[in-house]
Specification:
alpha/beta; Rossmann fold; eight-stranded mixed sheet; three-stranded antiparallel sheet; 12 helices; 32% helix; 24% strand
Length: 388
Amino acid sequence: MHSVNVKVPSSKGYQMAGTIDMPDSTPTAFAMFAHCFTGSRFTPAASRASKELAEHGIACLRFDFPGLGQSEGNFHETSFSENVEDIKAAYQWMSEHYSAPQLLIGHSLGGAAALKAATQLKKLRAVATIGAPFDPAHAVLHFADRISEVDETGAVTLTLGGRDITISREFLEDLAETNPEEYLPKLRKPLLILHSPIDQTVGVENAQLIYTTTRFPKSLVSLHQVDHLVTKQGAAQFAARLIVDWVGQHLRPEAQELAELPEHVAVASSTQAGRFTDLVHTGTNTLTTDREKSAGGKGQGISPTGLMLSALAAGVSQTVRIAAKDAKIHELEHVQATATKHGSQITVALRFTGALTDAHKAQLLDAAREHEIAALIPDARIIEDAEA
């Protein structure tokens, strides 16, 4: 897998810093991860779980909410409701620049925000939470002894994760006005609830309440001996594997999502992954392209020249096998086509395996030279490997 840093506009126009963890092969689906209260996309749960998803073929966007991590904005000017809108904004950005996320994951308060946002994301196919509170106002419990400061000054400054975080009266009022019993029953997505019985920050009873308030299909799975921040070695990766195993039954392969494109049509859309990167849809598949590093790219995908040579080699190889079948040349056991570009000259060298006569080889070479892709490159030489 490899990671790509991006900038995602928030619901209020701030630039949110994001990272997309991409599998090295074509993604089977796209996902998003909402981090915990006052955390960032680099917290163990967010970064480790997202990377594990990518290792299993699911591309995942993790991003910093405004005023946190490397994102623009001021945290004390945000609210839980705004974070819900930020998730929706990130979902829309992913839909426009990559593909609509089918899976939404949230950790802790990010899980609560994900649950509320998911009720409004029509194309989303599944939701998973890790250590999420039933009531978002649960976050207030961590500094209940300082609520009086909010009444006196309108805000309270706490040291969380080694840095000062200012929480405003508006933030707390928004939490208090958020009613999970109003939106959780409206969730129409399959739900996986992951929670540790020893979670001392958000008790496991929160998972039970979420489970009883939401509709089927839903699953509640215990994370054994895992702390709330999922810092235990291997815990986040294990949670991600549980999610992957569960969500497979609910996902639609990307090829099905793109089925509306007709055959012989390819659409390349620029992305923010790099200066020259594109996401190419063909109607049956999706892949990432980029320029070679020597040409100013980042090497994050196959180059257009590489695509052309791959298509030519594969097309010629297929044509040879079709020709052998039609001509009943049963002696052909295996064929290998190697396409090479030297300057403006392109050569496809064919290597045949089997007891073929010279006449058989000549017949197969003639068929290869008539392939539709080869015809588009009239100067391409198609030869037997022995001549290369």
